[in-house]
């Protein structure tokens, strides 16, 4: 039986093609997806839209769709907005929140509450107590072909475990030197520090240090220290800490044992340059013992690392150890060029 067109079929055949309608719907979905992007308002009136990749105590890094990553100084930001939930550190406490613009310069709305931008740090952690581990291992060998046939080996390890409030750091070094098949130096060092981060800037540090010279007459010296510190910057990888501690020293050998107390000040500095390709660092400490026979004891390390790849780097380290007494000054200077691996 033949099939005749119905009024509904005729109306459908007279309607425009439905594909343009579908294309418009897809376009609207795409536009709504773009509206989910993060947006930063600058004090000069500019507006940058993209995805926030990092926001530390100094810079905000955003990746627009149309260009490489853009780095913006905190001081240039008026406000910003992200409709996607991220983990943000607010006064060193993690919150999974979305953030909206604020009419106040230098503020954002977090859960409809005015919050200073200076209190915010972007975090890739999932909880306040989540541990983050990092470290490096490096070695340097110096073989000098001369009349004394000198050979030097220097190996170093550094590991850090931290949460938003606790930071453990362990450093170890081994130095071995021979000259004409005679051992001139065989030294082992270990340094452990524990920081409790009271606030964004204030911390409490406990330190332990051990050194042993394994020659014919082994000599061991170690100290324990405790005191407050202030972090000028450094929630991210960069840092500048100033710490004051009260130290107790022990010096032990087969001939004598000696103990003394001292006040000490320590500066720890680390900064990354050129998107992390170059790292400069310094650890400086000076101690003032409570004995008239020693004016001060200083221990300084200055160095840099250059990344060859994401894991492999070249390093240069310069050490100066000095002891000043009323009669003379003893100074030990060491430097080495090494190859290391980050993990």
SSE topology:
Layout: H1 7-14, H2 19-34, E1 38-42, E2 47-55, E3 59-63, E4 70-73, E5 77-90, E6 93-101, E7 107-110, E8 113-116, E9 120-123, E10 132-144, E11 150-162, E12 166-179, E13 182-197, E14 202-213, E15 219-233, E16 239-253, E17 257-273, E18 278-289, E19 296-307, E20 312-324, E21 329-342
Antiparallel strand pairs: 1-2, 1-5, 2-3, 3-4, 5-6, 5-9, 6-7, 7-8, 10-11, 10-21, 11-12, 12-13, 13-14, 14-15, 15-16, 16-17, 17-18, 18-19, 19-20, 20-21
InterPro entries: DUF481
Protein name: DUF481 domain-containing protein
Organism: Shewanella septentrionalis
Q: What attributes does this structure have?
A:
mainly beta; 343 residues; 21 strands
Task: Give your account of this protein's structure.
This is DUF481 domain-containing protein. InterPro entries: DUF481 (IPR007433). With 343 residues, the protein is mainly beta. It folds into 2 domains: 38-123, no CATH class; 132-342, Lipocalin, CATH 2.40.128. The protein has 2 helices and 21 strands. The chain has helices at residues 7-14, 19-34, and strands at residues 38-42, 47-55, 59-63, 70-73, 77-90, 93-101, 107-110, 113-116, 120-123, 132-144, 150-162, 166-179, 182-197, 202-213, 219-233, 239-253, 257-273, 278-289, 296-307, 312-324, 329-342. The chain has a 12-stranded antiparallel barrel. Strands 1, 2, 3, 4, 5, 6, 7, 8 and 9 form a 9-stranded antiparallel β-sheet that branches. It is elongated, with a radius of gyration of 30 Å. Mean pLDDT is 82; it is low at 1-35.
